[in-house]
Write a structure and sequence with these properties.
The protein has 254 residues and is α+β, with helices and mostly antiparallel strands. It has one domain: Rhomboid-like (Rhomboid-like fold), CATH 1.20.1540. A hairpin with a 2-residue loop joins β2 and β3. The chain is built from 10 helices and 5 strands. 55% of the residues lie in helices and 12% in strands. The strands form 2 sheets. Strands 1-2-3 form a 3-stranded antiparallel sheet. A two-stranded antiparallel ribbon has the order 4-5. It is globular, with a radius of gyration of 22 Å. It starts with a strand and ends in an 11-residue tail after the last strand.
């Protein structure tokens, strides 16, 4: 399944989402200027290599040393055009609406926090791996987790290839993202039993759960709304009551 667009319009320009896409693109363009050895060095120094923290002898022999910085920097590295474009497309579709709810500044903190949580779960499930994990997919999975709770009733136009025929279907966001998460969970469980096929499934799982947790615990509620009553009829003085909204903000049709 490949998402084409959703039906939730953004209320304001997604400045933070565009900035994140821009930074990822600029970093990837820098990667293209490197030769293979330089690229490998970049990935090992700034990608997430679990053995760097769990095997000091190996880290010393390879000249890496102990560092927590890769939990941040790995979020801006990509292994190829398809890796970059796939991640940025998902961020573009779902990020604007999450940014709408959180605000641009909080969205950046949210995004980086989800990316860090994704890296942490990858680290815990790949304790001794010497392979660098790179990519923004863990942080973007956090965006998907937040969208799952904020806009479950949204519709996602989805491309489903049936043999060689492209089928376009509108799927509820809760179904699309729920299926996506179950696929990550199944693949992650399989990866624990053997090779994971080069995909950091547990980073996706960790980011998704972190995004859901953020929304459940720290989502900004909508402002109070105003009721105007006319107890003495339309010509009488109005009485204004300000009451907190009783609507569930996760169900508002933004």
């Amino acid at each position: 399944m490949f998402p084409i667009r959703d039906n939730v319009p953004a209320r304001r320009p997604p400045v933070a989402t565009l900035v994140i896409i821009g930074v990822n693109t600029l970093v990837f363009l820098f990667e293209l200027t490197l030769n293979q050895a330089q690229m490998q060095g970049l990935f090992y120094h700034y990608g997430l290599v679990p053995a760097r923290l769990t095997n000091p002898l190996w880290a010393a022999q390879t000249g890496l040393g102990f560092s927590l910085l890769p939990f941040l920097t790995t979020q801006f590295l990509h292994g190829g055009w398809f890796h970059l474009l796939g991640n940025m497309w998902m961020l573009w579709i779902f990020g604007d609406n999450v940014e709408d709810r959180l605000g641009s500044g909080r969205f950046i903190v949210f995004y980086l926090t989800c990316g860090g949580a994704a890296g942490l779960l990858h680290f815990l499930t790949n304790w001794s791996s010497t392979v660098p994990a790179v990519g923004a997919s863990g942080a973007i999975a956090g965006v998907l987790g937040a969208y799952f709770l904020l806009h479950p009733g949204a519709r996602v136009l989805t491309l489903i290839p049936v043999f060689f025929y492209p089928l376009f279907v509108e799927i509820p966001a809760a179904v699309f993202l729920g299926l996506w998460f179950l696929m990550q969970l199944f693949s992650g469980a399989v990866a624990l039993l053997g090779p994971g096929g080069g995909i950091a499934w547990w980073a996706h799982i960790g980011g998704f759960l972190a995004g859901m947790l953020w929304v459940r615990r720290g989502e900004r509620r909508p402002p109070p709304y105003t009721h105007v009553h006319f107890p003495q009829g339309p010509s009488g003085p109005p009485v204004i009551d300000i009451e907190p909204s009783r609507r569930d903000p996760r169900r508002e049709p933004w």
